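Consider the tokenized backbone below.
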């Protein structure tokens, strides 16, 4: 798939051997976690992505013809216990997450091109404890929001939460039980 690739990336994927890795950015309230599946740190868009090597996995990002939600799972093994405590206390649901496919130069490991392949939000975090911990974060794409009900009540209080000072719903209770005759009797048209 060459969609979104520039000329250097297109040339790289047409080679007999393609060197690539995946990078993930998880935006927590306390700061960002940026990791890549390679063995050397990478810089994408001016941000440093720490190398996790064989300690991390990302499920395959697929495409479907239908309009449906798809998610992926990012797993990091070998997490120290003190980092697990931070992960357990950190609010994460609904926070932004981005995944890149990174094409690398096979000779020196420099980035040829990085393409966003998934953009969504963190959904669930599963933590398995042992000698070292495994942290598994499920990411959902933005289409998942289509399945969520809209929680607007169209009341004065709801309007004030959304738009403080707006008086658009102040007069709704006064007209609920009112008989409205249209056109009015005084209308001379």
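A designed sequence for it:
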């Amino acid at each position: 798939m060459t969609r979104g690739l520039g000329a250097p990336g297109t040339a790289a994927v047409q080679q007999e051997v393609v060197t690539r890795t995946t990078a993930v950015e998880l935006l927590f309230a306390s700061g960002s976690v940026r990791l890549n599946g390679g063995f050397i740190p990478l810089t994408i868009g001016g941000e440093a992505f720490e190398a996790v090597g064989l300690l991390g996995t990302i499920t395959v990002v697929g495409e479907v013809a239908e309009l449906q939600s798809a998610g992926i799972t990012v797993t990091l093994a070998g997490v120290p216990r003190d980092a697990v405590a931070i992960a357990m206390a950190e609010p994460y649901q609904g926070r932004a997450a981005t995944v890149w496919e990174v094409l690398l130069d096979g000779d020196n490991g420099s980035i040829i091109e990085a393409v966003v392949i998934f953009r969504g939000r963190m959904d669930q975090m599963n933590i398995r404890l042992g000698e070292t911990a495994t942290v598994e974060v499920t990411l959902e794409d933005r289409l998942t929001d289509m399945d969520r009900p809209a929680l607007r009540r169209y009341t004065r209080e709801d309007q004030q939460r959304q738009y403080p000072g707006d008086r658009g719903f102040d007069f709704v209770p006064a007209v609920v039980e009112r008989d409205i005759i249209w056109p009015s009797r005084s209308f001379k048209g």
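Residues 35 and 120 are 16 Å apart (CA to CA).
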